[in-house]
Amino acid sequence: MPSSNVSTRARAALLQLAAVPAAFALLIAGAFALNAGLARPARAGALRCNGYAALCDRPFDEVVFAATHNSMSSAEGGYLWPFQDASIAQQLHDGIRMLLIDTHYWPDERDAEAFAAGLPAGAAAEVRAALARAGRPQPGTFLCHVSCALGHTGLAAALAEVRAFLDLHPDEVMGIFFQDGVSAQDTEAAFVESGLLGYVYTHPPATPWPTLRQMIHAHERLLVMTESGAAGPAWYQPGWSLTQDTRYDVARPGDFSCALNRGAAGNDLFLLNNWIARLAPSPADAAEVNSYGFLLARAKACMAWAQLASDATTMTP
Q1: Strand partners, 201
Q2: Is there a domain that residue 120 lies in?
Q3: 39, 126, 183, 249: which has the fewest C-beta neighbours closer than 10 Å?
């Protein structure tokens, strides 16, 4: 893995590592950008899948994807206590290839008021100040964290940024994992409005994953997953049927674990959550846990753990 350009925020990125057993991929969740993954405009010549010709004939579940957690929550977007520095468009340019984003409606401000009520006085005052600046609730679908009053981006507008990126970079394959607070129907409407629907990939259950080359040639370069597993169109796929993950409530770097949290052991994708949980993300935490050495060591440890888990499952009568 190349050296990383670490974000000043605390949330690390999602990675999918190739050196795991067949049909089992490792994903790491946090907030950083990888220099070697910088987006390159389309050009004539040999196909370079996600920047590398060597990746073209690897299946999706054997390729590394960097991602951001709460990708929409950025300092650039004006969110309170942002998880990222840059916008989604800039994150994609910087090499992020999996977005973990939260969809919401904004009917009123009761969620923000309830959130403030459970906080220490200083933090509650920051939330109430954000509420005073937020403006009135609005109809529609948004990307928000906790409450749209604390920062929001229109869902269709954000998806249009993804579509623009994929339009400009036809050799790139990526994914979106929704913590879905809006209906599948309203999500689909945003995909239609943004023009992103034409890029989605539907993974048939219990089948091998296509290679990046196959996804590119089929013009199906976007995997879409949802946390709730709510019924929807075929491409709006239940994430925890495809993915397993680790704890995301870690308070200290020494407390990270590879043990199963959500999903089922043996799911093809392994989401390795890699951030320190704080109310306001810490640049110092990010500098430590998103560093090349720390992240690489943790990835290798979880790859070994995944191999042991796979062997144990295989050997169980």
Answers
A1: 223
A2: no
A3: 249
